Amino acid sequence: MPHGLTSLRDHADFPPTPALIAPPGSAILQPMKLSSRQTVLFVALTMASVAWLTVQSADDGFVPIFDGQTLKGWHASAQTGHSAISKNKTGGKWVVESGAIVGSQDIPGNGGIFITDEKFGDFEVVLEMNNDFGPDSGLFLRSTEDGTAYQDMIDYHAGGNLGGIYGEGKLGAKPALLNFSFTDKVTVIQERTNAPTALPVKPESWPFFWRHGQWNEIRARIVGNPPTMTTWINGVKFMEWADTEKRHPDTGGIALQVHGGGDLTKQFVRYRNIRVKKLTADAALSGFESDGVR
Length: 294
Fold this sequence. Notes:
The chain has helices at about 35-60, 205-210, 280-285, 285-290, and strands at about 65, 75, 95, 100-105, 110-115, 125-130, 135-145, 150-155, 160-170, 175, 180, 190, 215-225, 230-235, 235-240, 255-260, 270-280. It starts with about 35 loop residues before the first helix and ends with a helix. It has one domain (about 65-290): Exo-inulinase, domain 1 (Jelly Rolls, Sandwich). With about 290 residues, the chain is mainly beta. The radius of gyration is 23 Å and the shape is globular. The model is unreliable at about 1-30, about 40-45, about 50-60 and about 285-294 (pLDDT under 50). It has four helices and 17 strands.
């Protein structure tokens, strides 16, 4: 159910549905009786279904890069401009809480990035986010320690955007592509028409598509160099763009950002279930992958 809507059945004074009321002895209340052979078959089919789903999950190629308990494999970088308040001594505050990486400014105005130790080339990354509406964040692809990267925008604040593509750091804000922006309310967006990919969700449908205060899925893919980059929100493709020249290394880290400026020490970004799939040339070019279907 979309966030903000409650079921009428949650209210005690709402009457039960007549169709679900049956007199004693009626068929609707009688448990199904299975023979021994049917029971064995039912259990076997159930176990086969579970096994199939497990294999599907294992075979989709995505590998966790955050274990949900520690920050192993990641480190904070204070080399970006967002860490200037600390004179580039600290890169924000990053901890694990309830199975998620939680980030914030460590002192007023001081942010940074939290980046993987491993570098990646052609890949797809998927995560779930549940950020406060206020902090400026981002998902950085092929990031350097100084935060130069192709960014999947997570500018989750008034005037901000999700799913846009931005050239961070030395890429000089090229590109800077977005097909919507937030108003002062997280549930109200304004369409932008100057992007290469049209907004795939009607603005009036946004509060039903995006579930603020709950976990939503963000996904991004980058292949080639000059790169082609694609972003998705909750399984729907939001942006696709191809650079025309090589301006950045072939590999880099995957990073999460807490923006500098203001005082966001008491507002937080939260990310969990972070997984990556390294892509071969064939996988990167296949129509199955480009449709965003897994």
